[in-house]
Amino acid sequence: MQESQYSRIAKTEAFKELIRRKRAFLIPAVVFVLLFFIMLPVLSIFTDVLDGKVIGAISWAYLYAFAQFFLAWVVTFVYWRRANRWDELAREARKEAPEGEENSA
Amino acid sequence: MNVTASVFFAMIVAVTLGITYWASKRNKSTSDHYVAGKGITGWQNGLAITGDFVSVGGFLGITGAIALQGFNGFYLSYGIPIAFLLVLLVVAEPMRNLGKYTVGDVITSRFGTGSVRAIAAVNTLLISIVYMISQFVGAGALIQLLLGINYNVAVIVIGILASVYILVGGMLATTWIQIFKAVLLLSGTFLLLLLVLYRFDFNPVAVFDETAATLGDSAVVPNDYGGFLANLDVLSITIAVALGPVGLPHVLMRFLTVPDARTARSSVAIASVFMGLFFMLLPILGYGAAIYVGQGEVAAANPAGNLAAPQLSEALGGELLLAFIAAVSFATLLAVMAGIVIAASGAFAHDLYTNVWRSGQATDREQFMAARIAAGAICVIGLVLALGAQGFNLAFLATIAFTMAASANLPAILLTIYWRRFNLTGALSGMVAGLVSSVGLVLISPNLLGESAIFPFTNPALISIPIGFLASYLGTILSREDREGHTPYEEIYVRSNVGSEEA
Lengths: 105, 503
Description:
The complex is a heterodimer.
Chain A: H1 2-11, H2 13-46, E1 53-55, E2 58-59, H3 60-96
Antiparallel strand pairs in A: 1-2
Helix pairs in contact in A: 2-3
Chain B: H1 2-24, H2 30-35, H3 42-53, H4 56-69, H5 80-98, H6 103-111, H7 114-147, H8 151-198, H9 204-215, H10 228-243, H11 249-252, H12 261-301, H13 308-357, H14 364-388, H15 394-418, H16 424-443, H17 446-449, H18 461-478, H19 489-498
């Protein structure tokens, strides 16, 4: 039966390892990204701290805004590379799970 | 102007119809119609997501806003890279692993009842229609200004074209039209950028220096938006821009067109590169317009600055470039429209007709028929509403769609995937409360009531998103757990992480 096949996958070592790695990356990444993001509108709208000019006429506000784009690219790249390796664990989890009476693959 | 522009516009129409004809031979089943048979590659989907997102609101709206307001106009842009990072980290792969054709499929995969599917479908329809009206309004205004065709005629022509793409070519045509348009718009933007930078010896910093020198420092630093409430309103919009895409049906649907989670992941990564470049470089175009066209001229052509990009192209490249950029904007509108309509038709035909009304008993042929009829009907509804919405501000309409997506769709999608205790009552109360609060607060806002507004903000995201989450939470913990007819969370949890066996 499908349902028990899923519980069997959930019990494999590979699946537990997959979840452990995903959580260790995703939770801090999402929290950091959200905080990093929200500080820009909050600081630029409600305070003057980003009003100074840094490089020529480019202000801290612009630098911070551009940093959002670079942050997104870096995290995307790091996640993409790791997640492509995690796919191996997902495959293993499916293989490791003892076959039920029926495998609907 | 009219002759060159007409030739370009005609070429765009010819190419898109050509793509549609080619796709029509491969558009044979329900799965082809909604998700192109799940056969789209990572690169194709990445460009199509880019296409879905670099809309005219972005290209014309943000360039104009920066031309007129400097850094203050950039706030619609800087949330977008974060939005797509969140899409990648939290929804793209689970969406692929749990869904079939629509957002409703994902929530229903866990709670499996008609009511949750019906409400998810209504949310998708309303969000899509609001977004679609914004595109129609933009398209009509653009064609009226550039080709001198009457707004109503323009809107009707666009409605007919979008219907033809979808009815005949389905998702495959929509995807390739998006790719075509994404490449055109990115090249057009890049060309304009090079023309601006050429005048500054390819030194981007000099663009900012020149802006500060001619327009004053206030053009390059953040300014007050006009009092505490106005500031909070802008904060609300930035949050809507960063969270909205994570719940936008026509974006989420793109992850169902690819064969597996790995491709879904690659496609967001590719989209993130192109989209990031596009939105990051808009200040150069905005400032270019402020310098070479002049703020007065930009504001005179359109009070919101919506024509700054076409005006800049005329100033730098003459009539030919203007006609090209105008045609690119037109292609953008057509493509985005097609993408939205197909998501909405899925909600109507797959969720409401096939699964709720017919309890899943419709044959593939009937579903295919229903999907096509729904697509045509939705185009007509959007068209009629757009004829009445001419006076609304373009950016306002689009951010309202983001807010609705973030308030009504996002909590239910996230909690379905990640919260073990989440239950049917929580899903229903969250979706209804998110929708009612986001739409309700807009109805009593200054946009519709003007001076006599009861709610002070033009955008309610700051309030309606927390309401959506809170209602999902309270609905869950206050209701008695009723497990009947539900898929165990363990199955959702395993499937969202490793994919399902049958996929």
